[in-house]
Amino acid sequence: MSTISTTHASVTSSTDDHRAWYSFRPWWRWMLVALAFPVAGYVAHLIVGRVDSVAPAMLGGVIAGAGIGAAQWVLLRRRGIGVRWIAATAVGLGVGLTGGAALVSYRTDITSLAVMGAVSGLAVGLAQGATLDGTKRMLLWSAATAALWAVGWAITTAGGIGVDQQFVVFGAYGAISSTFLQSTIVGAFIPKTVRS
Length: 196
Description:
Elements: H1 2-22, H2 36-48, H3 54-76, H4 84-103, H5 110-129, H6 135-158, H7 172-183, H8 186-189
Helix pairs in contact: 2-3, 3-4, 4-5, 5-6, 6-7
């Protein structure tokens, strides 16, 4: 009888994991993270000014990344994500923004900012993904984050925000859009069973 129960529990757990991986629906609480982008970005902008060289890109990325990572961690800690997530986000954005902004020569046209966003998002995704279980999960989270950050910058630019100010992260339009899209995949990539 215990063998049957154990087998049934194993099959149920496997089915739940499979369902969690392929269930893409919004996690509405995740939308609170959208508030962190303009706040963290504004604080970073006040401290470092324009992202027009390596030093402000690196420092601004670390500051904004810490704020965004902290907001995400507040929601993810119940899913077993540790505080390393905050440091990973800060380092990821510091490195990613430094590389991405330099790659596009600090230009602020929509294409340049989308490329910068993709590079920044990839670095953030890789750093955050390193705190998750499994290489596949890390790589897919990285690719998704890169795409979402590119979208965030494109929407912000198209929305008429003064991106010529060379901000650290995209504004409210981009934050709401990218955070909503990310809310549909958080449950798939970071189920409640993940431990860090």
